[in-house]
């Protein structure tokens, strides 16, 4: 069993609490499903949000999915002037037998434009 990091991102239309929670739940669920992961495989998740998203902590959505026992942390992305706005990102650390080349990073909604090279 190896420890792997999985990247993901999504974009919301507005700084709205429900949009942040819904998009984050969708992203976390997609990361788990696409990588055939169970709750107990997740070691920790770091969430970031662009500076224009302050309506809610993305980690709350993961707790709502039953991840209250998983270490979760939120941070703000650096404010790069030309960056895509209203983006939520995650880096999940997981235990998996999959080799690094088989990890599926997940980029949803408008965030798919961020990493066309690795987005599934």
Quick recap:
By secondary structure, this protein is of the alpha/beta class. The protein is 21% helix and 29% strand. The radius of gyration is 14 Å and the shape is globular.
Describe what you observe in this structure.
By secondary structure, the chain is an alpha/beta fold. It is built from two helices and five strands; from the N terminus they run E-H-E-H-E-E-E. Strands 3-2-4-1-5 form a five-stranded mixed β-sheet, with helices on one face. Helix 1 (17-34) packs across helix 2 (58-64). The two termini are 23 Å apart.
SSE order and pairing:
Layout: E1 2-11, H1 17-34, E2 42-49, H2 58-64, E3 72-76, E4 87-96, E5 106-107
Parallel strand pairs: 1-5, 2-3
Antiparallel strand pairs: 1-4, 2-4
Helix pairs in contact: 1-2
**Secondary-structure-derived class:** alpha/beta
Mean pLDDT: 94
Q: How much strand?
A: 25-35%
Shape: globular
The number of helical elements comes to 2
Largest sheet: 5 strands, mixed
The share of residues in helices is 10-25%
Low-confidence stretches: none
What's the arrangement of strands in the largest beta sheet? 3-2-4-1-5
- The tally of strands reads 5
